[in-house]
Amino acid sequence: MAKNNNGANLGFERELWQAADALRSNMDAAEYKHVVLGLIFLKYISDAFEEQHAKLVAEQAQGADPEDPDEYRAVNIFWVPKQARWSHLKANAKQPTIGKVVDDAMLAIERDNPSLKGVLPKDYAHPRLDKQRLGQLIDLVGNIGLGDKENRTKDILGRVYEYFLSQFASAEGKKGGQFYTPRCVVRLLVEMLAPYKGRVYDPCCGSGGMFVQSVEFVRAHATGNGLPVRGTQTGNGGKAKAHVSIFGQESNHTTWRLAKMNLAIRQIENNLGKEHADSFHHDLHPDLKADYVLANPPFNDSDWRGDLLKDDKRWKYGTPPTSNANFAWVQHFIHHLAPTGLAGFVLANGSMSSNQSGEGEIRKNIIEADLVDCMVALPGQLFYSTQIPVCLWFIARDKKNGPACAAGAAGRRFRDRRGETLFIDARKLGTMIDRVHRELTEDDIRRVADTYHAWRGDKDCDKQYEDIPGFCKAATIEDIRKHHHILTPGRYVGAAEVEDDGEPFEEKMARLTVALREQTEQSAKLDQIIWANLEDIGYGE
């Protein structure tokens, strides 16, 4: 099956989405996503529970108790009380009271699983939700085995959940950007930073995509790179447990709930706080020094109440303007980096060149502190939420040759790159997947990531870095000073070399001159016709 970068093998996930979306009727996508994703979550934990329940029933003679919650928690499986099990929902799917049945199930699960308290949707009994369609949706979800061991190993639920997130983001348009960063952008950030080990932080985490991809990166690369693997999780289908600790927060309550569910279905331990909170005004991790920061903050946010934070200790490189939070986010990221930490984040292109309201001075101070490791210009139309051109910033607290990535990516080391910054112009990459959306392909992601790894001297990278006109350029701080501390990659990489077509210069000039003369003569004839027509209707001279 075809593979795309929004998380789906284009097969049953798309078919399931089409069927589920058909049941939406006139319900707004922003509301409907909680209905659908909540049921998928419930089906997953119920399947996992039932599988363990059957195993315990078979072991009763040895003293196992299938109704003891601790028998499930011991193997990282959520305890599901009787009124919340999928069999109970399915039996009541055709009843007019099904909405209340689902709400009661969600309440019971939250009651018996403290980590899910306040996370699950509980609006299924609301009059605006057609109960017949809800019953049909339960039947639809019920036909897919999501939580059994085989499907947990394949991350079936994770794929469905992520694919549905992307589809809801597309359906919601601009509003969808509040909770979803396109998977290909997240993949690129993660592949470039390579967060093998340590503390990963996202202070505006949306639905948790940065964390999911960070953990998946470790699981995919750990054994292949000779890195230590901390055993396996019984309830995680045998996947290697990642050596990363997850820290984050999200200011939107409904989005925070999506993130908690997204991480729970993949059994990724996390610290997103016990509530949603604004990172600027209520930092839930004030003392955190992260080994990696990955983030996609709101672009050009003018409503961040910066006037209340004029003298904040985070503004080491200059007080950010109250009209735009871009450099408040940059400095928040830097503030939370460990001494050898790395950060990769998305910002609007204006952050690379703006000189308004002191932004240019802040950028200059960050550059002169030798913190900017790499800049990547991205192609347009990657995001569902905005057409604003965007870029990737990569910040390194310490560029000298030393232990890589703080707590240490298993002893990997980088070369000393003090005084240097890599510029990559990736605007020509990507493939249109529909009329308005573009995706970076696997080859695109690999090309950019390999270029960065080769340049910074990753021990495990087998490629040699070289400047490529029109694509990448290693520049010095002095080069950046000459460009007045503007970080737009196009200023540094130059133009791509034009391939020689083999036509001698004299012959080409003669051919082009003839073509130009013919076009000029044709233009003159057209001008005469136009003026003649104007004279016929009384407007010529």
The helix tally amounts to 17
Oligomeric status: single chain
What is the CATH fold-level name of the largest domain? Rossmann fold
CA-atom Rg in angstroms: 27 Å
What's the CATH superfamily of the largest domain, by name?
Vaccinia Virus protein VP39
Q: Give the N-terminus to C-terminus distance in angstroms.
A: 67 Å
Name of the CATH architecture of the largest domain: 3-Layer(aba) Sandwich
The number of domains is 3
Q: How much of the residues is beta strand, in percent?
A: 5-15%
Mean pLDDT: 85
- SSE order in H/E notation? HHHHHHHHHEHEHEHEHEEEEEHEHHH
CATH class placement of the largest domain: Alpha Beta
Major pleated sheet: 8 strands, mixed
Low-confidence parts lasting 5 or more residues at pLDDT below 50? Answer: 1-10, 223-240, 403-411
For the biggest β-sheet, the strand order reads 2-1-3-4-6-5-7-10
Question: Can you lay out the helices and strands and say which pair or pack?
Answer:
Elements: H1 12-22, H2 29-58, H3 69-73, H4 86-91, H5 98-112, H6 131-142, H7 149-153, H8 156-172, H9 183-193, E1 198-202, H10 209-221, E2 244-248, H11 253-264, E3 290-295, H12 326-335, E4 337-348, H13 359-368, E5 372-377, E6 390-396, E7 420-425, E8 431-432, E9 438-439, H14 442-456, E10 472-476, H15 477-482, H16 490-493, H17 505-536
Parallel strand pairs: 1-2, 1-3, 3-4, 5-7
Antiparallel strand pairs: 4-6, 5-6, 7-10, 8-9
Helix pairs in contact: 2-6, 2-8, 9-10, 9-14
